[in-house]
């Protein structure tokens, strides 16, 4: 059993030294006691035995440091150094004297492993003779000695412990004397207690000396007379002798420096002196636990055998001065598991403030310690080598790293299964071509794809075969790509592994990248619908330079408002400013491997000159090394400097100028290599650089730049250590030199890598053509290759379009046009020019640059030689006009184009002509069986196919302004198909033809709607199939299929539309979905949350007209639920805040279809809030339209119920007629769907019976309606039937039944989430009680 006791510090030193000596002898003899060490030290390059000896010494040092800290803790707790002439302080009631701070007046508390026989809290004696060590006569084994030393727990002064008479001595009055006495204690402690002599004759090899003598005794200083005062001892030994004694004892340089500075405190430079015991304690703790990798295991420490004469500063990977910001980010990350929203952290700061370095530290913490996934994207200031290359490269690097680890196989499997579930095979293949490492997840699928070029040729063949089809919608391509990458991010961030997604240097990101990143952050997709789906948790971090992002920057004008207004991501902003003097000192201290006490004066000067900019501080120190103002001293084994010279060093006006000054000191070959490398941007791969070896040996020339920390080698890439270095190297060239360098690189790359096959666009092709384009912008080109350069630009533009990088596509197309110059439309260049202009105009359309697009279109309209060559541009113009709300102009342009194609439309379209066309088509189709529609003849005439495509493109714009043309044009498509053959557009004609049939034959309309889907499937036009499905299930299926089943289809179709890239019909699908959910009683609180997400999505997809319509149904939901949210406020840029303002605008624009939707919203709300007279007005305004749609059913239902309410209050018989008319309609509709219409018909009949006084029949019919609504899951109509039945009971005086049914009604409304109407029907206090 161990007992607490005390041991003199001299005895403790003797015991520790004896244990160290025995351990060294055991290692030399083969025995090993290295099983339980207080520290862990990495082996050096020496032998294993020498490594063990180093560990032994460091163990002794660690134990001494522990005792030193205990002593300092005692001193700082009760005593502070005072200046001269101050009154002496007290320790435990006694004055502190110089003899008190000495090894003889100090004792150490230990746990004694043997029975010392003197009871607790007593002293023990240690005796060491030759090989034996005894404690109170009991011999100690090695493990017992180790236990005693490791148990050291407290240091005390002897005087309070022993009752002995003090010698009369003068008090110490100078704080330096206190510190000198402390230094002497430390000196003897670390030098193993040997007596101090004027000349030290230690042998250099301490280990050899100990091992040479088995009988050597450890020197002891048991006699008080051996300890001289500080002044005497300092006269005996010089500073160099103290240093030599400590170094010979294998003491680390940092501790050696601390001890010698204590001993000579106040004698030399005040900068090296300590000010108090607390300063000593702070520095010692910094050495042993704060920064041991810098100060204890120092490369200059002789123990580690590593001294370096190379003057190179190592700043390490520690982030200084960003503790508050780092902790804030980590706090947000820690809460990510509990938070339902993703987060976006925007970190701003000037260049060089350490944004990237800080987030790298955060990444290391989250990935290593918390198991996060990480994807990092860095955008380049100068070049964009291929479309979305930064994003593609980031994901490729993530999966390459993931697939190289066996322990990640379950995670990889989960990602694979998620992608297989949510992505079609074709979309998976395209994603694999964007991210090559993904191919390993789908080996079976990819084995069916012969090559990249095969996949590419499929797209090119379909685009170039203009006989049958027109170009696919590029907007659809973008939306399809965005959806697939969102699903990829969702897969990565699910399964219990959050994702840290970092976008570095956002100020240089292209429009395509920013649109994709916005989509990743704000889109919701079908993930929010999936039950039991793993939740995707992503913490987005965007870094950007605040000095380059002003109010006019695209981030400020467009993207930041989107981020802040979305409901799908929580935004936090962090701004980095200059670091403090203290942080600067810590950074310099770490870099120079010196205590902060010694670097404080230097840091103050550097901080002032560098303005606290982290990168500037580093570069300024590098410049001091270059100028020899800061140097490494081999004699002192530390960095040295001259403060006056540092103060005199001129400061550059900015970081870039300082970089240039530093770069100019490099060898000429290295500087030229850096200039060429800067032409590529921030990095370039080695194979590409090797293609330039005919002109310069760039690889060897970069070695010196790597050695100077200007360039880093990361795998096959050479990368500038910082963007400012890249910018500085590039700016060192004149404009002419820049132009020549770009031209040289581009020409060489084309000659070596592209010349053999111009038809394929590879990543290197983008590098080459980017270089050529930049050379041309700078005023240099080779005109003899202009057609080749224009062709390459066209290929690059088309490739950019295929991956939805429309900004790059437009840039490439414009460059291609510029290379053709005045010979644009010459015979040999005609086809090339036409394709360049088509590509440019399409890119403008998808990037919302209408004015620029119109210029390109006008060029085509002026120079194209045939209508066939103009058709793509005409279709683009029609779609553009419709997208910006100019429906009338879109219709006029389409009708004019149809006229040029030979399809003359009547200006006056009487109803009789429409009926004749419908009857004619019905008669013609009567001979077609279902099999005939599934396998029809195909159209072969380009003109006919073009007519059907133009008619199909204009039909969506007819709903508001000319709805009577829709059935007529639908019949024209069907007629052309019957006469000339079918195409994919024929299916849309059949669907449009089926819609007017709802007025006469619902079953026939439903049949042709379903057949249109089968017909479309036969043409394999998968990108348009969700669009057709939206129309069938939004307009037709409701009349025959259960409404809840239709909702499920529309929910899935929303995701399918996004997967197909069809933003318009994705928004239409979700509008139908939200409306149907509201009408059939889905929970309104959940719907309101979804509305917020989908409104954000519509805004981002630029569907502004649909946003307004969707805001109307959102307002219905918020009013019913009692929410204070204003839906129109969620959609920035609409300038409309209420439904009334919206309807006024629609009325002024003559958009009748959208206006009737607004009328229905008002009818619906006024009925539920019992504003029956207002509801009747809106119901009347809704009437008088030709086409039938699902809102007509609910209009009839609520108009009928509202009329019966008014009939009870008014003798006007027309209200009964309105109600009976509604009953007649539902009697017809219920034959096609009992599920959807039975409860509504029964409720209308019950109201009529109640009105006529047929009490029993009314009660029975109410109860039948209640049961039908409950069986068919219409909770809102279930509650309504209960409420109306309660009204009957109340009128007939049965208050108990009335209360019972009203209570049940409220429960249904509560399940519906309609708190707004509950409050209307029940006083607030009753609602709370309930």
Automatic annotation (TrEMBL):
Recorded superkingdom: Eukaryota
Residues covered by the Orc1-like AAA ATPase domain: 319-521
Protein's name in the database: Orc1-like AAA ATPase domain-containing protein
Organism: Cyclotella cryptica
Pfam families listed in its UniProt record: AAA_16
InterPro entries given in the database record: AAA_16, Hybrid_Histidine_Kinase, P-loop_NTPase
Transmembrane segments annotated in the record for this chain: none
């Amino acid at each position: 059993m161990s007992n607490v006791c005390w041991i003199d510090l001299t005895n403790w030193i003797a015991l520790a030294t004896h244990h160290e000596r025995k351990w060294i002898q055991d290692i030399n003899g083969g025995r090993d006691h290295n099983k339980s060490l207080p520290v862990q030290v990495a082996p050096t390059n020496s032998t294993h035995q020498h490594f063990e000896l180093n560990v032994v010494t460091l163990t002794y040092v660690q134990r001494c440091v522990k005792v030193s800290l205990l002593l300092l803790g005692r001193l700082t707790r009760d005593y502070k150094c005072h200046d001269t002439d101050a009154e002496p302080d007290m320790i435990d009631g006694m004055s502190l004297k110089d003899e008190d701070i000495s090894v003889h007046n100090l004792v150490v508390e230990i746990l004694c492993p043997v029975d010392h026989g003197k009871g607790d809290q007593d002293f023990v004696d240690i005796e060491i003779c030759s090989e034996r060590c005894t404690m109170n006569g009991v011999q100690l084994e090695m493990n017992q000695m180790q236990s005693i030393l490791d148990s050291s727990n407290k240091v005390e002064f002897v005087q309070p412990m022993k009752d002995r008479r003090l010698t009369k001595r003068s008090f110490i009055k100078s704080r330096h004397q206190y510190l000198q006495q402390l230094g002497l204690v430390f000196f003897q402690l670390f030098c193993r207690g040997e007596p101090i002599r004027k000349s030290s004759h230690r042998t250099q090899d301490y280990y050899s000396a100990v091992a040479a003598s088995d009988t050597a005794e450890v020197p002891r200083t048991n006699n008080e007379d051996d300890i001289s005062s500080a002044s005497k001892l300092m006269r005996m030994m010089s500073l160099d002798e103290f240093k030599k004694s400590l170094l010979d004892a294998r003491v680390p340089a940092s501790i050696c420096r601390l001890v010698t500075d204590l001993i000579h405190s106040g004698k030399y430079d005040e900068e090296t002196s300590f000010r108090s015991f607390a300063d000593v304690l702070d520095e010692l703790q910094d050495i042993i636990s704060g920064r041991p990798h810098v100060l204890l295991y120092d490369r200059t420490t002789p123990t580690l055998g590593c001294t370096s004469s190379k003057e190179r500063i190592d700043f390490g990977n520690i982030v200084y001065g960003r503790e508050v910001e780092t902790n804030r980010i980590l706090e947000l990350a820690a809460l990510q598991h509990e938070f339902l929203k993703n987060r976006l952290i925007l970190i701003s700061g000037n260049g060089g403030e350490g944004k990237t370095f800080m987030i790298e530290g955060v990444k290391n913490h989250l990935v290593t310690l918390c198991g996060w996934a990480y994807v990092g994207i860095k955008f380049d200031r100068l070049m964009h080598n291929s479309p979305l290359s930064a994003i593609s490269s980031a994901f490729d690097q993530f999966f390459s790293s993931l697939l190289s680890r066996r322990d990640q196989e379950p995670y990889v499997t989960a990602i694979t299964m998620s992608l297989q579930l949510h992505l079609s095979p074709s979309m998976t293949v395209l994603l694999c071509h964007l991210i090559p490492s993904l191919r390993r997840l789908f080996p079976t699928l990819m084995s069916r794809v012969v090559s990249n070029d095969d996949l590419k040729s499929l797209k090119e063949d379909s685009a170039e075969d203009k006989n049958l089809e027109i170009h696919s919608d590029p907007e659809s391509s973008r939306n399809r790509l965005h959806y697939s990458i969102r699903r990829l991010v969702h897969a990565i961030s699910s399964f219990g592994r959050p994702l840290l997604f970092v976008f570095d240097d956002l100020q240089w990101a292209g429009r395509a990248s920013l649109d994709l990143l916005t989509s990743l952050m704000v889109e919701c997709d079908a993930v929010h619908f999936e039950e039991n789906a793993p939740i995707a948790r992503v913490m987005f971090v965007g870094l950007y330079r605040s000095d380059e992002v002003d109010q006019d920057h695209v981030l400020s004008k467009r993207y930041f408002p989107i981020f802040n207004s979305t409901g799908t991501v929580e935004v936090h902003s962090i701004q980095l400013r200059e670091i403090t003097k203290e942080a600067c000192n810590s950074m310099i201290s770490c870099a120079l491997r010196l205590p902060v006490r010694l670097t404080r004066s230097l840091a103050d000067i550097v901080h002032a000159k560098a303005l606290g900019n982290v990168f500037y501080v580093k570069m300024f120190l590098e410049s001091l090394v270059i100028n020899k103002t800061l140097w490494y001293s081999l004699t002192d084994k530390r960095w040295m400097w001259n403060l006056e010279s540092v103060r005199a060093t001129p400061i550059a006006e900015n970081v870039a100028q300082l970089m240039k000054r530093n770069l100019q000191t490099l060898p000429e070959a290295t500087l030229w290599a850096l200039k060429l490398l800067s032409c590529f941007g921030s990095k370039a791969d080695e194979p590409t650089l090797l293609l330039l070896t005919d002109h310069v040996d760039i690889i060897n020339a970069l070695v010196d730049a790597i050695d100077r920390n200007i360039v880093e080698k990361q795998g096959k890439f050479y990368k500038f250590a910082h963007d400012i270095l890249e910018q500085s190297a590039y700016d060192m060239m004149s404009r002419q030199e820049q132009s020549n360098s770009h031209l040289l690189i581009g020409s060489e790359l084309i000659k070596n890598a592209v010349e053999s096959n111009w038809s394929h666009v590879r990543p290197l092709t983008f590098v080459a053509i980017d270089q050529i384009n930049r050379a041309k912008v700078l005023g240099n080109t080779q005109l003899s290759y202009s057609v080749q350069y224009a062709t390459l630009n066209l290929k690059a533009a088309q490739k950019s379009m295929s991956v939805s990088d429309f900004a790059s596509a437009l840039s490439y197309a414009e460059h291609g046009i510029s290379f053709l110059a005045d010979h644009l439309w010459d015979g040999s260049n005609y086809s090339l020019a036409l394709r360049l202009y088509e590509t440019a105009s399409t890119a403008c359309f998808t990037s919302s640059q209408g004015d620029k697009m119109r210029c390109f279109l006008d060029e085509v309209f002026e120079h194209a030689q045939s209508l066939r060559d103009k058709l793509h541009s005409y279709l683009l113009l029609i779609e553009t006009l419709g997208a910006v709300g100019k429906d009338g102009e879109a219709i006029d342009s389409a009708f004019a184009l149809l006229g040029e194609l030979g399809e003359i439309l009547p200006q006056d379209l009487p109803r009789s002509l429409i009926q004749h066309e419908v009857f004619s088509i019905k008669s013609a189709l009567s001979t077609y069986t279902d099999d005939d529609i599934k396998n029809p003849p195909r159209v072969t005439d380009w003109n006919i196919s073009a007519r059907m495509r133009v008619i199909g493109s204009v039909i969506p714009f007819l709903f508001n302004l000319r709805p009577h043309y829709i059935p007529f044009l639908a019949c024209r498509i069907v007629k052309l198909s019957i006469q000339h053959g079918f195409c994919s557009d024929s299916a849309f004609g059949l669907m449009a033809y089926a819609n007017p049939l709802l007025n006469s034959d619902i079953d026939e309309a439903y049949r042709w709607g379903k057949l249109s889907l089968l017909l479309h499937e036969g043409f394999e036009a998968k990108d348009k199939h969700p669009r057709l499905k939206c129309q069938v299930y939004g307009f037709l299926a409701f009349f025959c299929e259960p409404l809840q089943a239709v909702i499920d289809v529309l929910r899935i179709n929303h995701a399918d539309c996004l997967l197909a890239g069809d933003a318009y019909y994705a928004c239409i699908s979700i509008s139908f979905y939200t409306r149907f959910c509201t009408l059939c009683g889905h929970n309104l609180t959940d719907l309101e949350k979804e509305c917020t997400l989908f409104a954000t999505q519509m805004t981002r997809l630029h569907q502004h007209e649909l946003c307004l319509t969707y805001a109307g149904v959102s307002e219905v939901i918020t009013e019913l639920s009692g929410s204070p949210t204003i839906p129109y406020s969620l959609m920035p840029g609409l300038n409309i805040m209420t439904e009334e303002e919206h309807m006024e605008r629609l009325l002024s624009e003559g958009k009748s279809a959208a206006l009737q939707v607004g009328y229905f919203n008002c009818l619906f709300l006024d009925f539920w809030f019992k504003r029956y007279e207002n509801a009747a007005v809106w119901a009347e305004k809704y009437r008088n339209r030709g086409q039938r749609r699902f809102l007509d059913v609910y209009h009839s239902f609520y108009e009928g119920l509202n009329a019966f309410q008014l009939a009870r209050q008014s003798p006007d018989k027309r209200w009964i007629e309105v109600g009976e008319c509604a009953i007649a309609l539902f009697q017809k509709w219920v034959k096609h769907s009992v599920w959807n219409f039975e409860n509504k018909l029964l409720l209308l009949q019950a109201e009529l019976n109640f009105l006529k006084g047929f009490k029993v029949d009314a009660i029975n019919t109410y109860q039948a309606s209640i049961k039908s609504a409950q069986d068919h899951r219409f909770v809102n109509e279930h509650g309504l039937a209960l409420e109306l039945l309660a009204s009957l009971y109340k009128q007939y005086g049965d208050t108990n039944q009335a209360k019972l049914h009203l209570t049940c009604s409220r429960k249904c409304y509560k399940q519906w989430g309609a708190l707004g109407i509950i409050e209307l029907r029940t006083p607030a206090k009753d609602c709370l009680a309930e």
